[in-house]
C-alpha cells in the first residue's frame, strides 16, 4: 500500500500514483507496459490475475522492474508531512528521507522498555515515564543490595531476603 496522498505538500503528478491503491507509490515496481505500482499492491494483484490492472496486458512477476531513474528521482523529491503530525510533529521532509526521520521522530509512539509494562509513550516523554513507571527496577533503598520493582516495594523485606540468601550459602 502506498503513502496517503493527503500527507504530501503540493501537487503530486498522476504518474507517481499506484494504479491499484491510488496512493503515492511505495517501494515501486514498473511493468513492461510502463505502469507503476507499489510492490505490495502488484504482488497482491498478481496472485489472482495475470495481467496489468491498467491496460490488461499479460505480465508476470519476473517482468517487473524498478522505476526509471527520473521517475524515482521525482518521487524522492516529493515533500510530505511526518506520520506523527496529529501528535504534534511539524516536520516536512522529502520522501527519500521520511523513513529516517520517522524512525527517530520525538513524537513516535514507542513501547516502555521495562519488562511487564505495556504502555506506548511518545519518544520525547520516555524518560519522564521511566522515572515513574510502576515496572521500573531499582536497588533497595534500605541497603540490602537487592533489585526490586517499585510495585514490589510494599512486600520487600530486607531481613527475610538476607536470611534466604544466608540459608542458600550454607
TrEMBL record:
A zinc finger (TRAF-type) spans 101-144. InterPro entries: Znf_RING, Znf_RING/FYVE/PHD, Znf_RING_CS, Znf_TRAF. Keywords: Ligase, Metal-binding, Zinc, Zinc-finger. One of its GO terms (molecular function) is zinc ion binding. Residues 18-56 form the RING-type domain. The keyword Zinc applies. One of its GO terms (biological process) is regulation of canonical NF-kappaB signal transduction. The keyword Ribosomal protein does not apply. PROSITE patterns: ZF_RING_1, ZF_RING_2, ZF_TRAF. It comes from the Eukaryota. Residues 101-144 form the TRAF-type domain. PANTHER family: RECEPTOR-ASSOCIATED FACTOR, PUTATIVE-RELATED, TNF RECEPTOR ASSOCIATED FACTOR. This is RNF41 ligase. The gene is Rnf41.
Amino acid at each position: 500500500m502506498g503513502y496517503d496522498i493527503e500527507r504530501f505538500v503540493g501537487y503530486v503528478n498522476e504518474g507517481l500514483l499506484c494504479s491499484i491503491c491510488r496512493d503515492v507509490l511505495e517501494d515501486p515496481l514498473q511493468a513492461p507496459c510502463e505502469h507503476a505500482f507499489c510492490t505490495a499492491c502488484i504482488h497482491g494483484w498478481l496472485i489472482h490475475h495475470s495481467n496489468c490492472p491498467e491496460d490488461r496486458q499479460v505480465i508476470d512477476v519476473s517482468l517487473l522492474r524498478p522505476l526509471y531513474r527520473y521517475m524515482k528521482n521525482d518521487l524522492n523529491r516529493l515533500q510530505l508531512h511526518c506520520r506523527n503530525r496529529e501528535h504534534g510533529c511539524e516536520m516536512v521532509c522529502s520522501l527519500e528521507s521520511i523513513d529516517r526521520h520517522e524512525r527517530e521522530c520525538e513524537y513516535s509512539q514507542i513501547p516502555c522498555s521495562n519488562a511487564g509494562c505495556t504502555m506506548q509513550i511518545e519518544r520525547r516523554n520516555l524518560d519522564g515515564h521511566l522515572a515513574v513507571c510502576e515496572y521500573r527496577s531499582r536497588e533497595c533503598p534500605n541497603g540490602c543490595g537487592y533489585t526490586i520493582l517499585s510495585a514490589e516495594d510494599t512486600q520487600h523485606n530486607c531481613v527475610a531476603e538476607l536470611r534466604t540468601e544466608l540459608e542458600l550459602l550454607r
